[in-house]
Write a structure and sequence with these properties.
By secondary structure, the protein is an alpha/beta fold. It is built from four helices and twelve strands, in the order H-H-H-E-E-E-E-E-E-E-E-H-E-E-E-E.
């Protein structure tokens, strides 16, 4: 569990510190541990579609998870338009990936778009996650907006991060658009997010 959060109340500063911590970790070993835990989850094993992402050079690579869930159709994100809205598109081994302005590999807009099915699973990138399922992302709110939309209504959202970057409460104010994931996975835990009230179905 993270011990860095007490020193920060600014998202930009917290992002810098989280990145610094992540750079000190054995990302290859963490990737193997996170993939093992993700692959053991019923919601991942039974997912008809898996929405994943291509890791950047300083992220933990979860791509080998695709070989552990061969039943799932694989979809990858791309950022579209001036507002950089997140859309997901079908990935096949022959699908070309294009590097965007942020150095993230993504499918072209011509790849078949995501069509939701009950039981789909999404793995969201994050710098940190707290026990409520709130992510510290990269500042664009792309995943928050997608998770709040109608296409995400039936899927299970998961954040997989190092235990060193998990905390009970992010020490930053939540924005109105911040949207929680359903599960938090680290090398030490597979944990459903806390519900603050009985009415807190997704928020």
């Amino acid at each position: 569990m993270s011990d860095i959060t007490a020193r920060f109340c600014d998202k930009k500063a917290l992002r810098r510190q989280a990145r610094a911590v992540r750079r000190t970790l054995d990302r290859e070993a963490l990737g193997a541990a996170l993939i093992a835990r993700l692959a053991a989850m019923t919601c991942v094993q039974s997912a008809p579609s898996l929405l994943l992402f291509c890791a950047t050079s300083d992220e933990i690579d979860l791509w080998p998870l695709t070989t552990r869930v061969p039943q799932a159709a694989l979809y990858l994100p791309r950022m579209d338009g001036a507002d950089e809205a997140l859309t997901f598109h079908r990935y096949e081994p022959e699908t070309p990936l294009i590097e965007n302005a942020y150095g993230i590999r993504e499918p072209s807009a011509q790849a078949p778009p995501y069509v939701p099915r009950p039981g789909d699973a999404l793995i969201a990138p994050a710098l940190m996650v707290d026990a409520r399922g709130h992510r510290l992302g990269y500042g664009k709110a792309c995943y928050d907006r997608f998770l709040a939309g109608s296409l995400a209504a039936g899927l299970t959202a998961i954040a997989a991060i190092p235990e060193a970057l998990f905390c009970e409460r992010l020490p930053v104010a939540l924005a109105p658009w911040d949207y929680p994931v359903d599960w938090i996975v680290t090398e030490a835990r597979t944990q459903r997010r806390e519900l603050l009230t009985p009415l807190d179905a997704r928020r």
